[in-house]
Structure formats: structure tokens, C-alpha cells
Amino acid sequence: METFDSVYEEEIKCILEELQNVTHLPGPIYQKLLRFKAEILIDKSDEELLMILHLVESHIPGLRLRATVECDSNIYEEKSHRSFMKKDYLNPFSCVKSDVQILLERVVELPKEWTVIQLTPRFSSKNIFAINSDDLTLSGVHITVFNCGEKNENPYCVTLPAGNAFSIMGDMRKLKNNLKEIYSIPYKKVTEVMSTKSKKMYHKRRLEMEDVLECLLREIEDTWLGAWKCLLIGKYEDNLLEINIRELVNVFLKEQSHESSSKKVQNILVQTAKYMLSTTEDESSIDKYMATVLEYCFPGENLKSSWNTFWNHHRIDIQNKGRHPVILIIDEALDAFPWEMISTLNGQPSSRMSSLHLLYAMYKAHEDSIIGGYKIISSCNGNFILNPGLDLQLMEKRLKTFFDYWLPEWNGMAGKTPSSKEFLDALTATEIFCYSGHGSGAQYCSSEKIQKEKIDSVVFLFGCGSTQLVEQGPSIEMYGTSQMYSLAACPCLIGMLWVVTDIDTDVLTTNLLSTWIPNANKTSWQLVNEREWIDKGIVSIDAMESKEILNEPNLLKALCLAKNKMKHNCNKAAVVARGIPVKLKILL
What we know:
Elements: H1 3-7, H2 9-19, H3 27-39, H4 48-57, H5 61-76, H6 87-90, H7 97-109, E1 115-121, E2 141-147, E3 156-160, H8 165-183, H9 187-193, H10 196-225, H11 239-255, H12 263-278, H13 283-297, H14 304-313, E4 326-330, E5 350-353, H15 356-366, E6 370-371, E7 374-377, E8 382-386, H16 393-406, E9 411-414, H17 420-428, E10 432-436, H18 447-451, E11 458-461, H19 481-487, E12 492-496, H20 502-516, H21 530-536, H22 555-563, H23 569-572, E13 575-579, E14 582-584
Parallel strand pairs: 1-4, 4-5, 7-14, 8-9, 8-10, 10-11, 11-12
Antiparallel strand pairs: 1-2, 2-3, 6-7, 12-13
């Protein structure tokens, strides 16, 4: 812990022990209590699983309490059929050693294709005295890895120091605020009203934000995460490749007389080997990262040269090999960061959840339709709502022509403000729902109403900040519409972390839907004249020759491909998926 914490450690212990006698602690206080308990177990390797249990329990305790209260309300009102996220799965652990086994059993029950990575801030006593959100500090991060579906694989945790985390947190806030200010200027004003000088300033500021994002990502990846970004790599779809890498790691350990190394060390080395064999980074960076990991695994021994020699001799080509999905359990304080842009996650199918409790409850809610780690969507039919605010006419025209061309069987509303009932009907009537307008659509249908519905559809909310978590204050949990969709058992929701521009968003929308949902009767959307479509909303084909339509039924993979079509990284970084992996049945 930081110096401030260590000075007052005993006093903090006494206060937190008293708090344990309180029956229902407010979420943020309960969260601090659990993270302090985890902090004092960091150096006790035999207590690592108990530490992990504390960290798991510390994620969104207030939201989970709200969900259990809703379950009780439904039972009391004889509406138990509406409790889709079962209370038993959301209830808190007692955080005693007997609960560790329950946690392990749940992880084993999850699909073996999943790798779950939990990112949890370390305890900081300074945050107890914060009087506004800007005063909150970040004292490092616990990275916990759960290899799901494996009976003999316990989760393990690596704790990162604070480093420059606090300055990164400040830079992230500045980036979001600047983007909000820049993107608040209507596109029509930029193109038709602004003077040449003002246009140059506008585009200069946008380019500056691209540079700020690039620097921010470099700081997160190289300075903060460093070598430990290797832990974010998912399992390879080729199981023989996974087995081969693990066997080679065991050969290396035997050669170094470390064959009795713990499972944790073996797993870390497997992840390190995956990174080393797949990265395109320069050798000096790789050497630095290898030295960090090997020193962590084998303190006082210099095995870097032996490690490098071994893998140069046993080189395996794993670049561009398909990976199974990674599910990121991200604490609210870390949710604004564009984790998916980090090199080990860029192109990796990944989604977010806010707690392991919620992930398990989501899995159980959809268990009957999950095959091979993916919820299967059996129908390509959907509904859409376009421009309900009536002030995005060109966006409406672009997307309406897309839906008419590529998805003519879909039903929807364009240029019309929906009632709450119309929004809910569109949301729940089919297995796919697309909203393109301002925000998340909560202005037309409240989040509280959404929470009470059974949402079995994949949801696309293509509006500014549609999936962001909003700060309420230093002692109140953050809140977002996406959380209500999760409580309604929505299997997967794709949206934006912050403000974005309409053209890039429309490009994402059309490329994602046309890549994910097939239409064998149409010329590929990739052959549409993009410039004419963007400027005039007209669909015209650049090349008349027939071309095989490439399709990706794996939604998270399709999202990775579609994001690459976006022009601006600030827009690309904003796009995230929340929920569990999804596939369309049609091309299985």
C-alpha cells in the first residue's frame, strides 16, 4: 500500500472491522471494506483465492443489491416470471473461505472457450476523503484471470503498482471533455457556415485529440500495464495450439529445474509465450517485458537469456490465429478507458461486464441457447429506430437507404419520435434491435422500464455515450443505461463510451450489420460507392461484377472488422460491447 495507507493501516482496520457489524452498508463503503481486506492479503500467496473472492465481491455491490430488491418485488407482486437474473446468482458472498469453493464451481461451469479478465482498482485511503469525483485517485490495479471451464485451473491475480495511473486518469477525463466540446458543433455548420480559418481550427483540434488518444494508449500499454498486457490474450480456437504452447512451457521449466512451479507461474508463462510469439513490437520492448515477467516468476534468477534462446529454437507461427472471446470484468472507475485498443486486445473478440456475479447470472439466463461459448441467435429479423430526435436528417437518409437495401424485411421507425410503448415493442419484439439517434434512447423509454423487461435481443445503441457510466459523486456508484439492459438479461449490447461523430458511426453501423447479417440476394455492401452514400444517402454500386459476400456470424469478430472501417481512432476507441459472446445460427 501507499505510505499514507501504511501509516494509518491499524486505524483503518479498526474502523472497517466496526463497519462489518452494519447489516446493509452503502455500496461504495462496502466496496472499500472489501478492497482493504484484499490489500492486506496481497503478499500472502496461500490466501490468494480469498483475496480474489474479496475483489470479485467488490464489483458493483449497490447495483446487485438493487437487482435483488427488484427480484423480491417481483416475487411479492406474484411476477416472478419477470425475474430473469436470478437472485441467488446476484446475492453477495459472505467472503469466508467456504465461499471460495462456490466461486470456483461457478467459474468451472462457465464455457471453456471464455477467458475472463477482471480489472479492479487497488484500495486507496485517500479516496475516503475525496469530496468530488476529480479528487479520486487510482493506486494501481489488480488483474485477475479466470480460465473458465477448467476444473484444475484456479484463478490467479497479478497486482500492478500505481505508476502513472493517476495522470492517465486525468488525461482520460480531459480527452472525453474535449471531444464533447469539439463534437458538439453540428457537421452542417462545419461544412456550410464556418469560415475557412474556423474549419482549419476545428480539424486541427480533432487531429490533436487523435494524438492525445495515441499518447494515452501508449501510456496505458507501455508504462502502466507493461509486460502484464499479455494476461489479456484469449485462448486460441485451435486447441492443439494451446496444448502445444503449454507443453513447451513445461519443457522450459524442466530444463531450468523448475518443473514444480505453481500453476499460476505456468499460466503466466503460457500467456507470456503467446505474447512473445505473436507481437510485432521491437526487440528492446519485448526483452524489457520478458525480464519483468521472469523476475516476478523466479525472483533473483536471470532466466531472460535462457527464455529467449528456448523460444528462438521452438518458434511457432501464431500470428493471425483465431482466438476465443475475452470477457473483461471492468470496475466502474476503469470503465472509461479504451481497453479494447490495447495491442493484445485490438482485433481480439471481447466484451465487457461489470461483475462476475452478473456474468454468471447472464450465463444462467441464456444457458439453454449457448453452444460452444456463444449464445445462438436464430433469426436475422430485427427492428430499428432512426433519428427519433428529428434533427439528424442526413444520418436518417443514409441509414434508411441501407436498411431498405440490405435488410428490407426489417421493420422500423425513421424520423418519428416513439412513445415509450413503441420503443419497448421495437426493443423486445425481435432478436435484433438497432437504435440510431442521440444518446441511449433513455429519453424515450426510461432505464427503469427497460430493467423490468425481458430483453432477449441483441441491442445496438448507436448514439453518443450510449453505454457510458456517469459519475454521480465520490461516494455514489456510477450509473449507466447499459446496466439496466444487463439486469434485463440483454445478452449483448453494442454502443459508445463517449461522444462520436455521425459519419463514422454510420459507417460502423452499416459495415457491422452487413458483415454480421448475410444477404445472398444483394451485391456486397463493400462495393457501394461510400462517398456518394455518405454525402447524398444514395446506394450505388462501384463494381457491377458479382462478388462473394463475406460474412462473419461471430458478432464480436464482426465488430472488430467493422471498427477497422472507421476513419477516426477517437470514434473507434469509443465502441464497446457489453454482455456475452453471440453468434448467428444461419452460418454455423
